[in-house]
């Protein structure tokens, strides 16, 4: 009789554990599910200026202002293929940061045009210092770059501080 009770308890524990693991697996996000990595400033390491969605979709950098939602960006994870591939969406305008095959940079509709022009590759060990690159045309990647005059543009990646960004102030 004692063996039967012990056996029932063992099976009850085992069944409870199996069901718990099964429900945890069902509720876990898939590896390819989009999620927000963070929403904050994108601040340039070299200049200390923040990426800004100016009027008419123009992108520039300006001194960081805590109440300026045009300087706040949501970095949205899409998938991982050696690096994180993300969409970068402006909080104030809900427009995506877009790179173009002709080298231009602008804020535009997140659902229009070519999907890969709205994807950025985050190269780095974390989002406190990352290079944001385009998709790589002919394996020649261009990075989101800036200068002390407030310009933001794409330039062939060179590893310099003007091409390093931080999510957060």
UniProtKB/TrEMBL annotation:
Keywords annotated in UniProt: Signal
N-terminal signal peptide: 1-33
Keyword Nucleus set for record: no
Gene3D superfamilies to which the protein is assigned, alphabetical: 2.80.10.50
Presence of the UniProt keyword Signal in the record: yes
Domain of life: Bacteria
Matches recorded under InterPro entries: Ricin_B-like_lectins (IPR035992)
Name of the protein this chain belongs to: RICIN domain-containing protein
